[in-house]
Every structure is written in C-alpha cells, then in structure tokens.
TrEMBL record, chains A, B:
<dbReference type="GO" id="GO:0004180">
    <property type="term" value="F:carboxypeptidase activity"/>
</dbReference>
<keyword id="KW-0479">Metal-binding</keyword>
<keyword id="KW-0378">Hydrolase</keyword>
<dbReference type="Pfam" id="PF02074">
    <property type="entry name" value="Peptidase_M32"/>
</dbReference>
<comment type="function">
    <text>Broad specificity carboxypetidase that releases amino acids sequentially from the C-terminus, including neutral, aromatic, polar and basic residues.</text>
</comment>
<protein>
    <recommendedName>
        <fullName>Metal-dependent carboxypeptidase</fullName>
        <ecNumber>3.4.17.19</ecNumber>
    </recommendedName>
</protein>
<keyword id="KW-0482">Metalloprotease</keyword>
<keyword id="KW-0645">Protease</keyword>
<keyword id="KW-0121">Carboxypeptidase</keyword>
<dbReference type="InterPro" id="IPR001333">
    <property type="entry name" value="Peptidase_M32_Taq"/>
</dbReference>
<comment type="similarity">
    <text>Belongs to the peptidase M32 family.</text>
</comment>
Length: 494, 494
C-alpha cells in the first residue's frame, strides 16, 4: 500500500502541474498581452520540462513495480500511469526536446504561411515535424504500442484501443451512405434559406451565456471568454470555455459555445473523487468529442431546441428574415459543400475527416511525401466535394493540427460523431419525452442522462467500453447514419 | 565559468516557474471561478513545491561553491541566489508546501469573512497562517537571518537590510510631526469640499486607462482588470495591473491605478538584459512602494497634475460640483480620519502602517494572540484616529496581507513613502520645470528620470543603495515630512 500511496501523491502533484500548464495555454489564447509572447515561451518550456521530468522519473517505475491497488478504480489508475510511463520511456529525451522545440516554432510558421497562402513557406517545417513524428511512432511501435504500426502507435495516444484498420473499416461503411445522402440533398428542389442579417455582438454573447446555462455549464467552476479558435480548457473545478463572434454568422458563436460546453461539462461532471488523479479527465479524444457533438448537433440542432432558440433570437435581435421556427430549423441545418472543416455541416463533416485520415496515414507510412501533399489534398477534395480548392488557406493550411505534430488526432473527431449517434439513440429510448424539455430550452434531461451514464466515470473505463456501458449495445456507425438520413431527408423534403 | 553558466541556466528556469506562480495569483484575483478555489490551492501547492525543491536543490549549493562571476552584475546575481538559497534551506519542504496550500485557501476565506463582517469565520484560518509564519520566522532566525529575531527574519525577505528596531526608530521620529500636522489640519477653519456626486463606471475605467498611459504604462506588455484589492503582478514583459471602481469615489479607481502603474512600470522598465535573472525584478518592497507612492502622491496628487485631471474629469463626467482646479486640488488631498488604509490620505497613511507594524510584531513574537487581535486593533485605532471601528470589514478584515502570510510586509509601505520623499526632492532639483509637463497630463519627465536613475537597475544594487545613488544623499524621513507639512499646511491655509 505504501508504494501505491506514494505513487498517487506524486501523480496528484503532476496532475496539478499539468492543470497549471493548461491554464497558461488558456491565458495565452484569451488575455495575455501580445508583448509577453517570447517570455511566455520560456515559461511554457520551463513547466513542460518539469512535467517531462516527473513523467519519466525513475521512481514512478519503481513504484509501479510494487504498488498494489486497493480497488478497481485504483487498479485502473495504476494501468493508466503505467501506460503513460511506458509510452514516455519509448521516446528518447533528445527526440522529446527536439519535437517540443520544432513544433512550437512550427505553429508560428504555419500561421504565417496560412496568412499569406504560401505552402512553400510551411513545407520544410512540416517535413521536419513529419520526420519527428514518424520517428516517435517508430519508437513507440518498437516498444509494442499500436501493434507495431507507426500510425496506430500515435493514434493510441488520443484514442487508446483504436486502430487505423478499424477506423478505415468504419469509414468504409460510412462513406457510401454519406455520399448518397449528400448527393440527394444537394440535388433536392427545396433548400433552406441562409441567414442574411447582422447580429450584434453583445446580443450574441448574452445568448451564448444562456445556451451554456441551458446545457448545464456550471458557471461557479468556469467562465466564457473570446478566442480566435474556440476551445475548452481544464479539468475538475476550473473548466473554462471560449467562443468567437461574427456579426454575419451568429451560429458560429452559438454552436461553438454549445460544442465547448459539451467538452467542459464532461470535465465538470466527473466524480469529484477522481479530481487530480488519472481518472479525473475525459478518457479519450473520441469520447470527448462525442459529448461536444451530441450537445451541438443531436440536441442543439434538433427541431425542438432550435424552436426555442428561434424565439430567443427573435427576442434578442428582432425579425432577422426567417419566417418561423420550422424555416429556422432548416437554416440552422443547411447543407453546403465548403472548404473549412470546422464550419462544415453534419453531413459533410465526416468527409473532411476521412480525407485527412487517409492523407495522414500515408504521410506516416511514407507512402505520401510532404512535397506531394498539396496536390494530393486538392485532387482528393475536388473528388469528394465537387469543388476545387481556391487557396491553400482553404486547403491543406486550414488546420493547426499537423504543424504541432498531431497525427492520429483527426479520426477521433469522426469517432466522436459515431459515439454521439449511438448515445443519442440510447438517450432517446431512455428519455422519451426529451423534446418537450428541449422545446423549453432545457437540456437537463439529456445532460443528466449523459452525466449519469458516461461523464461521471471520467477515465474509469476504456473509451469503447464506457460508450457501450452507457448505450447498452456495442457502438457502430449505424445509429449516426440513420439519424443523419432521417433528419436531413426530412429537412430537404425528400 | 561552467558552474556560473550552469547555475544561471538553472536559475532562469526557476525564475520562469516563479513567473507562472505569480500569474496563477493574478488569475485567482481577477478571473478565476469561485468554485475553483480548493483545486487552485493544490495547484499552488504543487508549483510552490517545485519552486522550493529548485531553490533548495543541492546542485545550487555546489554551483555557488565554485561559480565565478564574469562581472559585477554577475556577482550581484550570485549574491542574491546565495542569500535566497540560504533562506530557503531554512524552511522545510513540508512547511513551504503547507504554507502555499493554506494561504491560497485562506485568501478565499478572508474574502468571505470580509464580505459578511464575520471575524469568527476567519480566525481559525488566521491562526493557522500565523502559526505557519511564526514557524518559518523561527526557522529563519535560527539560521541567522534577522539577527536571530523572528519578525526581522521575515521582514528581511521583503526589505533586505531593514530591521524592526530601525523601522521603529524611524516611526518614532515621524510620529510626533505627523500627529501634530494631523491635529493642525483637523482643527483648521478652512477645509476642502468632499465629492458629492456619482461617477459612471465606464467613464472611470476609460480615464483610468488614460492615467496609466500618462504615467508610461506599456499596454503591449500589460493589461488592466478589476480586483477586490488592487495589485500589480509579474516581471519583465507581462506585468499586469488591477484597480477597483466605486461610483461615489472615483479617486479610489484613479489613484489605485496610478499607484499600481508605479509598481508595474518599475518592473517593465528594468534592463531587458536582466529578464528572468535575479536582477530582473524590483529590488525590495520598500523601493517598489517608493515608485508607486511617488507616482500616486508627489506626482499624481500634485497641484499641477490634478489641474489636468480636473479638466479630464469635467470632460468625462460634466460638472460634478467642484468649482475649479484649485478647489479640486484640495478635494483630492482632503485629510480625514478614515477606517481604510488604502483610502487614507497622505497624512494618515503612515499612522495606519505604524499600527499594523506594532500589531504584527506582537503577533509574531507571541505577545498578542490571534483571538485578541480584533480588540487590540479596535482600541489602537480609536486611540490613533479618534474614531471607533464600526465593522470588521473596516477594521482587521480590511487587508488581504495577513491571510496570505505577509508578515513584515506592511512597514515597507511606510519605508516606500520615506524613499519617495527623498526621490521627489532629488527629482524636483533635477527637473525644475516638471510642473509644466504635469499640468499637461504628461509625467514622462518624471518617469524618465526615475527609470534612468533607479528603475532600470532592477536588483543590481541593495535597496538603500539604489535610492541613495538616485538621490545623491542618504535617505531619511526628513524630506517626506517637510513635503507633507508644506503641502498640507498650504492646502489648509495654515
């Protein structure tokens, strides 16, 4: 028991320091003065150095060798610590330091390249990042992670237990139905009207706060600020969200807020007994995204909830040119091919992910050279979306992920959608009168069910396991596709 | 040279981590959700633990034993590191971590107690904090700091070289002249008119920003937020200030802002070569306060500058019942016994400090029990100010300092006033036409002189030494008392 208690006390401090590093990230994106950037780089380097030293501290290995867990939760905590320790041990210190240094610079170079639509400015850096991540993947694969596969070894960090082959199989079954649905919708005679109005910033922020409240965000343990790219940050009792405001597109503000509230209430809703332990955070990126997505889409973009939102928007902004709640439901759910993943509708979103997944797997296997990425991206986009990429900022430069070394992260977004589809099916069965509450702007019956069945467990169960426990069936893509076809064929009167 | 370079590289990371801890403090006072308080306590405990481990790392002792400085600045850095190393070595890690944890939580409890005027709610926590600080003082005294005196050992952390006996002697010389001046002013036939008007919050904040700019605050490396108790936070290129707003008392907002700008521009103005080194911060609390006080009082409350402020307030708020700039100068400098130290006029301010100094010395020596503090406070206040404390929030609950363990800190405020008096005398001799600039709302000739003569040196010289270098004479209380008597007797037409 002493080794277990010592390890847990050490781990608790590490988790607290990781929370601090996360909050520095929040600060940097929301309130930091611009002139502090260089100094902040040194500060982040210092705390990341402390965290790396703790995560590879030989005492952790010693404790793991003798610690005995008092219960199942304790055993799960030991397993998670052991897994992270073994992963970190595979990465040579030189590679970890070089990756930290190169990716921190790469993010700035990516932003510059994106700003001036200059792929060539980014390519040498991306080549360096890809080489470093392949090296890390190879080291992890050699250590037994990902069943010896480089891409799977990286993916395993974001979605433990998932494999590239498994995701490819899911995507293979999803693609034909999504492509058929997309074709039917784009060919339909009826189409919802787009918004054509200006929406004041103060009104948007006030309504965003109401939306966060409707979905159960606990303001006593969080706050809402503006950021260039919305995100949620922190675990336990300090979980902050951000959004952005565009006067022509209030849905960007509203649904970014609801999305981040999904992430944040997952963190806020974890059993307080797990605070600052390996169980005290969402279990995987895919499960996290299932929460943000079901809040945003299956609940937030439902006919019932958008009916309430329509009324609130009319109260806030007056007549904005949409006749009634039924028309508004169509406007919210308008399907249109677009360049940008983060602005994609529910039907197109997963096609963006499938494309990134195929491209990044090829980059990691070496089948695709970085020099050929732009051509591969553009030809694939034209084939999948029927539109030619007009500029690199709308193409391969649109997302920050690869610049900071996140290979294996993108598919977790689609996995989150798949999980959200399953959870929504189970939720509707468990709470048959949910629409009546949603129509009053009250998502509590849904968020209460999600908290009880999934969120409160934190890291206690493996990703697919916690979803299966919540749903009562093994998750697959069927419920998501059924939901999309039913919902969008009705909106488009097919 | 290798030991010196290694030590400086290690110290640089430690300084960066200390900046992070400071920024967490800023976060806690400005933007942190209330429900995060306990978790934040653990986070602060974790990073303070890391800092304590680094500051007592045996390698630092080894490096100090062999390091050779390349120049005088390097030698001063070595001396400061050695002094801090010897101090920290006196404090057991357990005590450092417990103090960090307890004081972080204590701050919230103090705020609650102050909010509901409930001394009993705060007493157990204050007892805990006092016990921890006495234990630290005893450990430091046993290690030879403060000449073996518990209070002096703590004071030495904020004002190296100062002693309780020395400060008591200065206060002993100041008190009769202050008491006589106070009696004369309160008995004068003429008295300035008080403000009797409401001043909108937005207008106050806009003017506070203008004031910060007038005193040279660099917005690209800082920001202004609201806090219950205004403070300045951070060093180098991220130095943030806070203020507060009362609709009936705009001077609270304005002069808190100018005060914090004094602290902040000291930090912002330090030679960039000293960034994240032991020389990269203000050298002591007393010298720090000399900057905030000369900005706030000798400059900000001067006849010339208040003339400009009167015009700006008329532009912002319209006619607010003060006839002209001359009357406004009196209103700004109105002398009145009041409960709150931070709102005290220049004449009463040091009497507040003398009282806290005596009480906290007794708390640290054990001569006064925490349980008896309220009675001791109230009877002393009645004796010194001729007014009975009406509620604890106006008495012993008014300041955050003791809740966060700052014993030995209060006298540095009065020392800052003494230094400010000396610096002001030298400044006026060096910049004879200063009033012409101040009358235009331009403090640059003064802040430029202060930066050149004092601020840019950071920690390069000892506190009394840097003030003497700037002034050209050894500092004492004479110039401050001369200034106060001349200024206030004129305002009160004596």
């Amino acid at each position: 028991m002493t080794a277990f208690a010592d390890l847990m006390a050490f781990q608790r401090e590490t988790e607290a320091l990781a929370q601090i590093a996360g909050r520095l990230g929040w600060d940097q994106e929301t309130v930091m003065p611009a002139g502090a950037a260089h100094q902040r780089g040194e500060e982040m380097g210092a705390i990341e150095g402390v965290l790396h030293a703790r995560r590879t501290d030989p005492r952790v290995g010693d404790w793991l060798g003798t610690a005995e867990a008092p219960d199942a939760a304790g055993q799960r905590a030991l397993d998670l610590i052991a897994r992270a320790y073994r992963r970190n041990a595979c990465i040579p210190a030189r590679l970890a330091a070089e990756t930290a240094r190169v990716t921190s610079v790469a993010q700035g170079i990516w932003a510059e390249a994106r700003g001036k639509d200059d792929v060539a400015h980014f390519l040498p850096t991306l080549e360096h990042v890809v080489a470093l991540r392949r090296e890390a993947g190879q080291a992890l694969a050699a250590g037994g992670f990902g069943g010896g596969d480089v891409y799977d070894a990286l993916l395993d960090d974001y979605e433990p237990g998932a494999t590239g082959a498994g995701i490819a199989a899911v995507f293979g079954r999803m693609r034909p139905r999504l492509v058929a649905l997309r074709a039917a919708l784009l060919g339909a005679r009826h189409a919802p009207v787009p918004l054509a109005h200006r929406f004041g910033k103060d009104g948007q922020m006030a309504l965003a706060r109401d939306l966060a409240g409707a979905f159960g965000y606990d303001w006593s343990r969080g706050r809402l600020d503006l950021a260039v790219h919305p995100f949620s940050s922190g675990s336990g009792n300090d979980v902050r969200i951000t959004t952005r405001v565009s006067e022509s597109d209030p849905f960007n503000c509203f649904y970014s807020t609801v999305h981040e509230v999904g992430h944040a209430t997952y963190e806020q809703g974890i059993d307080q007994a797990y605070l600052l332990t390996p169980l005290g955070a969402g279990v995987s990126m895919g499960v996290h995204e299932s929460q943000s997505r079901i809040y945003e889409n299956q609940l937030g973009r439902s006919r019932a909830f958008t009916g309430w939102l329509f009324g609130r928007m009319r109260e806030t902004f007056g007549d904005f040119g949409v006749a009634d709640a039924e028309a508004f439901y169509g406007t919210v759910n308008r399907v249109q091919p677009g360049y940008i993943r983060t602005e994609a509708d529910e039907v197109h979103y997963n096609l963006h992910i499938m494309m990134r997944f195929d491209l990044e797997r090829q980059l990691m296997s070496g089948a695709l050279a970085v020099a050929d990425l732009e051509e591969a991206w553009n030809s694939r986009f034209a084939a999948d979306f029927g539109v030619a990429v007009d500029r690199p900022a709308h193409g391969m430069l649109q997302d920050v992920h690869w610049s900071v070394g996140l290979f294996g992260y993108f598919p977790t977004y689609a996995l989150g959608n798949v999980y959200a589809g399953c959870l929504h099916k189970a939720l509707r069965a468990a709470v048959p009168d949910l629409d009546a509450a949603l129509a009053r702007g009250d998502a509590a019956p849904a968020t209460g069910w999600l908290n009880d069945c999934l969120q409160r467990h934190g890291g206690l169960y493996a990703p697919a396991e916690v979803v299966e426990r919540a749903c009562g069936f093994a998750p697959d893509e069927g419920p998501l596709l059924d939901y999309l076809e039913t919902k969008f064929r009705a909106i488009y009167r097919l």
